[in-house]
Amino acid sequence: MSNSSSLTQFLLLAFADRRELQLLHFWLFLAISLAALLANGLILSAVACDHHLHTPMGFFLLNLSLTDLGCICTIFPKAMHNSLHNTTTISYMGCAAQVFFFAFFMSAEYFLLTIMCYDRYVAICKPLHYGTLLGSRACAHMAAAAWAAGFLNSLLHTANTFSLPLCQGNALGQFFCEIPHILKLSCSHSGYLREIGLLLFTVSLGLGCLIFIVFSYVQIFRAVLRIPSQQGRHKAFSTCLPHLAVVSLFLSTAIFADLKPPSNSSPSLDLALSVLYSVVPPALNPLIYSLRNQELKDALRKM
User: Which residues form a coiled coil (predicted)?
Assistant: First the structure.
């Protein structure tokens, strides 16, 4: 029997038992992480250097790329290290840091996606007020609010999770530290209920953001369909499709992971779903935006 005061490390779930497969996972993760770092780095450089992208959407896209880079840098280094060195351990403090930063960047990304939806709503439904409602100061305040809300949400969950006594061993059924798997090791009923309460609050906040996104897009599509010219409708839709695709990817991968079968599911299925929602969105977001945004494509071509 162990508790959190004497626990010095956790055991993560290995991707494979065979050495050849472990090295294959290392090279695969290395390729994905380098591609994601390169793509998000190019977007950051393009937005920073090209004055055509010094717009509210460009500013929020820069912040979105920062959250994607944060997610990649939080998950991949330890997973690659374990695959390369044939180990599954992570220190107690390293696990706490991984939980905090992953929750922080994922929460901030969701709030930023909600703000970017507001940007599209104002641009299409209230174009005459765009400069007033989304000035540089307003954009900075909204981005700061997204980062602050993500920080607070992550801090509350991490502090509560790692204050619980752990008496069910130290083996996590996941390739990175995640709150639900750590809660399974807890023997504190009250602490578990506190975390459930925090989760319900977070879910309620997330549902509020989702309702706002859906309502905004209903208004956006109604406004676009009233545009008389086909070229105008196409241009309006093309400015919204990347954001809608990124939001759909973010939510669908998270929902698939949350709706996976309970304890009777295979470890390989758990790993596949975990990779789906923790790796796929940060890696694909830059590609989605660069394919549909002509100004971004022009800036990348210049670079």
Answer: none
